[in-house]
Structures are given as C-alpha cells and as structure tokens.
Amino acid sequence: MTYKSESWFRNVLCRLLSGAGYMHQIIESAGTGLGIPDLFIAGNGFSAWVELKNMGDLSEQELIKIPFQPLQYRWLRDYHKAGAICYLMVAHKSGTAIFEGIDIHETYLPEEFFAHSKELTMDRLRCLCPIMRTPSYIKTGGGGGGSSYPIITLLPRDALQKEAL
C-alpha cells in the first residue's frame, strides 16, 4: 500500500508496534549521525533499527533503485556486519517489501523485490520480531493446588521468517 508520505507509513507501523507492546523511537533530527535509520524498535528481548521508504507504483520498473540518502545504505550494511538486526521496509502500491540485513541492497530486480512484498500486518511483524504468539501453560505444585506459569519459547527468527516472508 502506498501512503501519502513516509511519515504516514511510519505512523501506521508505529501503531501496529504499539498494539503489540513494542517500544519505538522515531529518529529524524539533524542532530543524529548521518545514515541513522528512521526508527528504532524494541520489546521482548529484541531490538532493531528500521529504514523506511515510501515509493509508490513500481510495477513497470526494470530495476528498482532504493532512494537512500547519503550514508544510509552504508550504515545499514555496517550495522548488519557488526552482528546486529536491521530492516529496510519499502511501502509501494501492492504491499510492503521487508528486507533484513544481508538482503538490503541499493537496487533490486523486480522479481527479487516483489518476492519480499506482502501486506503490512501485525502477524507479519510478529514473524520479524521473535515475540511469543500464544503461550503454553504448565501447572506446578502438588496435590489439588498449584499455579500456572507460562512457558515462553522464543523460536529462531529464521524459522518465523520462513512462515511470513
């Protein structure tokens, strides 16, 4: 889905993240370092930087060039190489393409780009962020009493991504 502006795209994403209990911080000031992404997200032991782009109709493009500002691509590449998690999210007419770390490039062939594109939903974001979906419970204590405690199982992000991406 194309938004009126990148700010609208960011606001929709932030509402989805807030609804899932994630903290987010918008980073858009001249005081930050060059190349710093638009958004920082954190929750449930997970954190990532996210660069957002709003690009419109890309269906006729022979090569899709991401309009990075100077040093943005380099920052994302270096952050990924340091072993940290970062994403590029590109809103366009037919969905939102989401790329993680190693898959972030300055240009894409259309088939590669659109293979990463789907509707932006909370379920899709849950697959990017390793959060607990539905907890299982165990009963502890002897006899007729006891307490219920959730068993929290964090699935590897790769396993979750295969499902949603």
Strand order of the largest sheet: 1-2-3-5-6-8
* Biggest sheet features: 6 strands, mixed
Q: Tell me, what's the shape?
A: globular
The proportion of residues in beta strands is 25-35%
Tell me the Rg in angstroms. 18 Å
User: What is the helical fraction, as a range of percent?
Assistant: 25-40%
Mean pLDDT: 77
Name given to the CATH architecture? 3-Layer(aba) Sandwich
Sketch the topology as an H/E string, one letter per element: HEEEEHEEEHEHEEH
Low-pLDDT windows of residues:
131-165
In CATH, what is the class? Alpha Beta
Q: Could you give the distance between the termini?
A: 17 Å
Query: Based on DSSP secondary structure assignment, what is the total number of beta strands?
Result: 10
Structural class: alpha+beta
Could you say what the CATH topology is called?
A: Trna Endonuclease, Chain: A, domain 1
Q: Number of helical runs?
A: 5
How many individual domains? 1
General description of the model:
The chain is an alpha+beta fold and 165 residues long. It has one domain (6-164): Trna Endonuclease, Chain: A, domain 1 (3-Layer(aba) Sandwich), CATH 3.40.1350. The chain has five helices and ten strands, in the order H-E-E-E-E-H-E-E-E-H-E-H-E-E-H. The chain has helices spanning 6-19, 72-81, 110-115, 122-128, 157-164; strands at 23-26, 39-43, 46-54, 64-65, 86-92, 95-100, 107-108, 117-118, 136-140, 147-151. Strands 1-2-3-5-6-8 form a six-stranded mixed β-sheet, sandwiched between helices. Helix 4 runs antiparallel to helix 5 (157-164). The longest helix has 14 residues, at 6-19. The radius of gyration is 18 Å and the shape is globular.
